[in-house]
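Data card: per-record layout.
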Amino acid sequence: MRIKRIIIIFLLSFLSLGIMNCDSAKKNTALLDDKQIACYVLATCNYQAGVKFGMVGDSWTDLIYGSKVVETLRVQLEKYHGYKIVGATKAAETLAGVLSLNTHIKVIDETGPSIKYMLISMGGNDIQGSVEAYKNNGFVTEKTNRLVTFKSNLKKMIVTGNAYKVSKYGGDPILWVIHGYDFASPDNEINSLSTTTCRTTLKTTGGFTDAQVNGTDPSGLGLPQLFNEYNALLYTVTTEEPYLRYIDLRYTLGASASNNYISTASLYGDCIHPTSVGFRIIGEKYATAVKGLTNDER
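The structure for this 298-residue chain is written out next.
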């Protein structure tokens, strides 16, 4: 795939240069300097008055250290929809990791007293990472444990974040906005440097059957059901936490019951990350929802 070649070239260039780079306005180049990386990934930025949006996210918001090689969801918001964001976004991030490092608190500090909204783009690694545990511990047991843990961590992040914001700056608590993920494209590669598909990994490492990958297993257990339960959990938390809102992004990139909930392969760079074109479609839907939830503030 073209995206694979681009990312390989980028990684080689990046590694040869080393991590060199913060202002929250990134340069419009493929490679960032060390200050920009620190700002984009760690929210270590020069203070910018008036920014209303913070963000914590995983590879759907920052695939490669703030680069625009793939125009992720964060890039869509900043480049095409005019949002100014201070965030800590990096690939492979988990909600558990954010809490352990108090990253959400760091984002509140760096955004400043004008912060009103926190965009959350994570959960995929909490739910889908270390897929072998589904095989080792049993699908139902592992799924239940992960969803329970994620729910607890999400609520803790909101409560501790709002308590900190109100204590430090006063005013109203932050409104937190989280999205679910669209369905995967499991017959694409597991990542841009591999020739192994997600379907193969799920079967050999995770103990899934083809029917479970497709969501057609009579038991009702499988990958699409996991996506659906995760999205249902997010909605449930909005009924328990008054400062949380949820955006449903399922069925955006071609998945449907008639095609076994498999998203369009050409809109994905691997099995779980859309291409820039895919993210543009996702970004339009997401930005429209955010606009309605935040009174069209930027």
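Known properties of this structure: Residues 48-293 form a domain with the Rossmann fold fold (CATH 3.40.50.1110). The chain has one domain: 48-293.

See the next section for split statistics.
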